[in-house]
Amino acid sequence: MMLSALTALALAATVTNTETVHDVEPFGGHVVACTEGGLEVFTPAGRSVRVLTVEDGLPSHFCRAMESTGDRLFVATDEGLVSLDAGFQVTPVLDVRWQALPAAEDASTPDYVSRLESLAAVLVPGATYTAFSPRFAGTAEGRLFELGTSRAWALPGPVRFLSDTRDGVDVGTSEGAFSIDSRGRLAAVGSVPTGPLSFTVTEHGVRIIGSHGDVRAWGASDAASSVPSGATVLNGDWVGTRASGVFFREAKGWRRVTPTGQLCGNHITALARHQGRLVVGTFDRGACWQRDDGRWQTVRTPALPSNQVLGITSDGQNLYVATTYGLGFHDGKTWTQVAYGGRNPVALGKLSVLGASRVADGVALADGRGVSVVAPSSSPLSLVKRLPLPEGWSEHPSVAEGSGRFLWMGSEDRGLLRWDGERWQRFHDGRDLTDNWVTALSADAEGRAIAGTCQDGFSYFDGAKWTRVRTSAGLPSPAIVSTALVPGGALVGTLLGASYFDAGTGSVHALPRLADPRVYAVFPEGDSAFFGTEGGLSRATWKSASTAVSQR
Which of 6, 352, 400, 423 is the most buried (most CB within 10 A)? Predict the structure, then answer.
């Protein structure tokens, strides 16, 4: 199926998922939502205007907190702290990894910057900070530190809220509300809603927000009001949620204003084409494909056995989604679950399906005990053959890939296996591989393969001999999490960016910045490729390391 002009245009645009919201703040005549897909900007009436991403200068799509000084909006992201002016131009502020910001109150922009610098100088290094007050700092590990002293406390759950009192501090965590007095004694405060909890300061005082949407005043036992389920932040008539985006309160009630039809999730683990459409698999939010109108259609449990997708392939008629709890199979009309221990007409040997790929005989479904080859375009699925793994090879298979007559299987401790149509062959570290812990794998019908390892680079097989690359100036990290063969070489995704390996020269070239440095899926198409990251989907030309990148 040919892509429509609209879809082709949409593929070059920036698209992330903005449904996980950590903060909401009025600024510059707009309302800005701090999400895990960037900053989403709304009009005061609730119309989504744009989404700011790394293309606009953000260090990361993972926004954690915001504070406004009036003329600048300060934004804490997973890769640094920046500020924005009223035209949403981004300026770096501090290279810190905070998930909270101190209250701006009435501070001017220079005073607030000075306050941030002073705070950075006194914080204990190594912790992930999630809440601040003038005298205390809380962390994601459930630790509370009194600034300028050696006093510290352990609390249940990440610290979400701090408020200094005359003789101590009030502390809110994901699991409860507490007070600490001047002697350091910890006490629980009243009853709280069902967690995980969020906290917000309103003109009426501190409000505790439960996961089911009930809101209570600090220390009160009865719910004062209700907000959308999964709320994370409440700011006047605006609410941000964990998985449903932003809601705006109108006379008739709460209205969702975050656009629907978004990419299913930002942590992408698999990419494929099915009947001309790009299909995306995610770490914990199922799979989705883009429609002709540019919107995404999502499928999750119970259609899929699990929302954690390990691989996707298509035979033109059927779509196969490999997950941790079995195979999700779509024949063009309905979804069917196939899994070891349940409906299993294709002899799967373990629960997790490590991968699904097209091979000469059909579609190869790999699990930890072998490979089931099923007839293409069959419905219900029809088993062609079952290939058990060699006895005693490894108890920890990790990844699988097939093409043509070849099937490859990687492990966490015994390197690689290859089925050539007649027998299994083993490849190990030393002579063949840089390491036996294989974390990424790609193969083609000509016999080539590339295997990435946990922390020792990658090994490239040209069909006859191996080339091993442990480190290189063009390799951002030796921790490889995705690979894909291209003519003349391969693309490599690492935890710090992506690279192109030129097999002819043996050189490695770093690719431009992507949506996120953690690249878990690579899908080449001609001279460009889609890169699935932990922060969204990017498209880049791989033949030149200096080519500009368009983000998804």
Answer: 400
The structure tokens listed for 383 are 């088993």
pTM for the full predicted model: 0.92
Q: What is the CB neighbour count within 10 angstroms for residue 424? A: 15
DSSP character string of 336-371: EEE-TTSS-TT---SSS--EEEEETTEEEEEETTEE
Run of H or E residues at 118: helix 109-122
d(CA 86, CA 73): 8
Q: Identify which of 543, 449, 444, 529 has the alpha carbon closest to the alpha carbon of residue 493.
A: 529
Identify whether the C-beta of residue 356 lies closer than 8 Å to the C-beta of residue 321: yes
Q: Find the distance separating the first CA and the last CA of the chain, reported in whole Å.
A: 22
CA 114 to chain centre: 33
* Residue whose structure tokens are 């910890």: 186
Q: How far apart are alpha carbons 207 and 239 in whole angstroms?
A: 13
Spatial contact of 408 and 441, defined as CB atoms under 8 Å apart? yes
User: What dihedral angle (degrees, nearest 10) is formed by the CA atoms of 431, 435, 439, 445?
Assistant: -10
CA 433 to centroid of chain Cα atoms: 29
- pLDDT at residue 2 above 70? no
**Looking at this protein, which amino acid is placed at residue 175?**
E
pLDDT exceeding 70 applies to what percent of the chain? 96
Give CA–CA dist 311/221, Å, rounded: 47
Sequence-ordered list of residues with C-beta below 8 angstroms from that of 133, at least 6 positions apart, any chain: 102, 162, 163, 164, 169
pLDDT band at 14 (very low <50, low <70, confident <90, very high): low
Residue for token pair 């969020």: 198
Over residues 296-324, the mean pLDDT reads 97
Q: Answer whether 266's CB lies under 8 Å from 535's CB.
A: yes
pLDDT per residue as tens digits for the range 521-548: 999 999 999 999 999 999 989 886 434 4
Q: Report the C-alpha gap between 126 and 65 in whole angstroms.
A: 19
CA distance 510 to 499: 4
Q: 550: which residues sit within 8 A by CB, 6+ positions away?
A: 12, 13, 14, 55, 538, 539, 540
Q: Which two tokens stand for residue 62?
A: 């993972």
Both tokens of 108, joined, read 């001017």
Tell me the pLDDT tens digit for each residue of 403-454.
Answer: 999 999 999 999 999 999 999 999 999 889 999 999 999 999 999 999 999 9
Q: Which 3-state string (H, E, C) describes 143-175?
A: EEEECCCCCEEECCCCEEEEEECCCCEEEEECC
Laid out side by side, the sheet with 326-330 consists of: 309-314, 319-323, 326-330, 335-338
Burial class (CB in 10 A: 0-12, 13-18, 19+), 8: exposed
Query: Hey, what are 126's tokens?
Result: 């190594």
* Mean pLDDT (the chain, rounded): 93
